[in-house]
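Objective 1.3, modelling of assemblies. Example input:
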Amino acid sequence: MDAINLTESIDWEFIEHVKEESGQDPALCYQCGNCTAGCPYSHYFDYPVSQIMRLLQAGQKDTILNSKAIWLCATCETCTTRCPCEIDVAHIMDVLRIIARRENRVSEKDIKLFYDSFLDSVKKFGRIYEVGTLMSYNLRSGHLFADSDLGPKVLAHNKIHFLPKKIKGSDKVAKIFDRFQETLKKHG
Amino acid sequence: MRVGVFICHCGNNIAGTVDVKAVADEIRKIPGVAHATTYMYTCSEPGQDEIKQAIKQYNLNRIVVAACSPRMHELTFRRTIEKAGLNKYYFEMANIREHISWVGENKEANTKKAIDVITMAVAKVMQDKPLFSSSFKINKRVLVIGGGVAGMQAALDCGDGGLEVVLVEKSPSVGGMMSRLDKTFPTIDCSICILGPKMVDVAQHDKIKLYAYSEIEDIKGYVGNYQIKIRKKATYVDWTKCTGCGACMEKCPSRNAYDYFNFGVAPTKAINIPFPQAIPKKAKIDPNYCRQFTKGKCGVCAKICPTKAINYEMQDEIVTEEVGAIIVASGYSLLDLERLPEYGGGRYPDVISGIQYERLLNASGPTAGHILRPSDNTEPKTVVFVACAGSRDKSIGVPYCSNFCCMYIAKQAILTKDHIPDSQSYVFYMDIRSPGKGYDEFTRRAQEDYGVKYIRGRVSRIYPKGKKMVVRGADTLLGTQVEVEADLVVLGTAVLSNPDAARLAEKLHISYDTFGFYVESHPKLRPVETNTSGVFLAGACQGPKDIPASVGQGSAAASKVLALFSKDMLESDPAVAKVNINKCVGCLKCVRTCPFQAIKENQLRDGRIVADVIETVCAGCGVCTSTCPCGAIQLQHFTDNQILAEVNALCQG
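Predicted structure (C-alpha cells):
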C-alpha cells in the first residue's frame, strides 16, 4: 500500500461538506471501534465503518466515495446507538451515499437501482408496492429472476399483493418528490 | 483624594488586545486621578516597587491596579500598599485580562471596555473606607470525613503533628475501597497487608477519635470554629460491649443479606462483621434482613452473645464535635453494571465488575481466593476484561477517563494467570493509560510475560451461548470484528462521584463539578484547598485517583491544616455585613435569609430588637443586604453607595 501523503491529499472541503450536510462532527470520533463491533454487515464491507470514519477524518474523499461499504450499509443504526461520542454514524453513511450518487460514483450499481425502484414506487402509490418494486428492480438490474424463489412462500403467507394499494393523499407524497426535484434544480 | 492607577501589560496577555497606553491617557483625565501609568508586569517585584515609589512621589492615597482577576493578585497588591502606609482596603482591582483581553479580539472595543472598567474601579476606590481586621482564636482540632486510605493518611499525619482528629466513616469499618482490593499495582503487594497497619494505627492513635458507621448531619461555623453534628447510625449492637468474637454471625439464621463489603458477590448474614481485619472489629445488624426486624421474632444473636451487646431498640444518636478545619476524603462510587445493558451485567451472573473480581481473587472474599464463576462455581479458563466500561462514554454522561482501570485490569489479568495457569485472558481497550512510575512496564509485563491478549477496540455486546459468554467487539488495528467465547467477563466500570456528594458539598459550602467531584481552589497550584477557607480535599472525592495519588493528597491536606493551625489567632475579613442600629426596625428578615446563620437577634438597652452580625461567621455574601427592607444592613467594602458609584461611572461614560 502506498503511503498517503497527508499534506496533499486531505480534502478539507470534503470534510466540511459532510459535516454541514450531516450535522455531525467527525472530529468527535476517537476510533474506539464500537460501530464496527456492532455492525451486522461488516463482513461484506471493504472498509469497516470505523475505518470509513477514519478516512473521513483524514479527508480521503476518493477512497470513501468509491467504497462499497457506504452502499452496503443497511442503515440499521446499531453504530449510532452504540457510539459513545453520540455521533449519528448511520446518518454520515447516508450523506456519503448521497454525495457519491450526486457525483455519479456508484460502486454498487444494483443497490442504487434498488433505491430508485423503491422510491419510484413510493412516489407513485404513496407507499411501497412490493411486486412492482421487485419487477422494476429486476428489469433495471437485469437480474430477471432475483428472489423469485421467495415468491410462493410470501404469497402463501399473504405477505404480498399482486395489485398496488394506494394510500389517501398519495398525490401529496408525490408532491414531496416534485418539491425535492425543484430545489435540486434551483441549487444545482 | 489622589488616586493612582497602574495598568499592567501582562506581557502580551493584556497589551496584545488592549491599547494600554491609550487607556492610561484616558484614565489620567478623570478628576481625582493624580497618576496613571502602565507597566510590563505589575505583579513583579519592580512592578510593586514602582507602586510604592509612586505613592510617596505623587502623594497617592487610593490605588487601582488594572490587571488580572483579583483571585490572582488582590492579596499581593493589598500587601504592597499596606507596606507603603495605606489602609489595604483603599485598593481596587480592575480585571482587564479574564474579563476583557482574553475574551475579545477586537482591540478597539477591548480598549474602550478597559477604560469603562477602570473608570468604575476609580469611582469605587474613591468611596472606599478604611477597614481593619480583627483576630479570633482558633480551635485546633480537625475533622476528617471519610476513612479510606486518603482520609486515614490525613488523620494520621494530623495526629502525628499533634492535632486532635475526629475521623468520621460512614461504613462500619475504616479502610474504604483499598480494603477491598486483593493486590495493588504495579508491585503486586497485598493491599490489606499494607493498609492493615494504617488501620490499626488509626484505631490506636491517642489523638484520633474514630466515629465508624456515622455520617455528617450538619456543619455550622467558619474556619477556626466549626460545630459539627455527627449522626451515629444505629448498629443494634452495643460497641462498648461487643468483642468482635463473631459468634452472632456464625449462628444468625438470616443468610441472604446483601454484602456491601463484597459488592454483593455472595450474600452475608444479617448480623455481620464486614471482614476479618475490620477496624473497629464490631458486629452490626442490617435491619432490612434481620428476622427480629422483618418478622418480629428471632433473637438468636441476643441469646448467643456472650457479652449481651445486642440491643434491638437502639436508635441513631447525634453527637456534637467542635473543630477548626475539615478535610474531606469521602471517596467515590462505581457505575452500576445495569447502566450498560448491552453488556448484560446484572442479567448474566458471569458478567461482573472489576471490584467484584477483586473480591473473588481475595483470600478473605467469599470464595476464599479461588476464582470461581458465579453461575456454576467452576474455574474460568477464558477471562475477558473490558476496559472503559462506561468511561469516556458521553452517551451515558461519563466523558472522562476513570484513571486507574487500565492498571487494575492489567493486574487482574496477571493474577488470573497466577491463580489459573492454564487460563487465557483478553483485554479489550481503547488506549492503555499508564503514566505512573513503573506503570507502563507493568502493562507490558502482562502482555510479554503473562501472555495476556490485548485487543484494541470496544465491545459492542455480550450474550450467552451455552455455558459461555460471547464477547463481540472490534479489533480496530486489524480492522475487523472479533469474538471471544469467555467463561467470565470482567467490566472495568467507570468511576463516579458518591451519590450523596452534592448533599455533603452543600453542608460544607464547597463547589462540585457536573459529575459531583469536588472542585479544588486551583487545578495546579492549590490542589487540596477549596474556595471555602478551612475546608480541604483529599483522594477520589476530587476526581478519580489511584492509591499513591490519594495518599499524597491526604498528606498534603494534613500539611495545609498543620500550617493553618501553626498560628493561635486568625485574622477575620472585615468585608462583612454591618447593621446600622438607627435604621434597623428589627424585622429580622436577614436572620432568616442568612445562609451561614451569621446574624442573630439582639436586644438593646432600651428594649428595642435589632439584628446583629457575628463578624467571624459572616462570609460576606450580601444576601442580607438585598433582603433588608430599610437599607439598614450594609456589606462593608460593597456598600450601596460604593456599588452605585460604579454604576454611575459606567452610565456617564
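Chain A has a mean pLDDT of 92.
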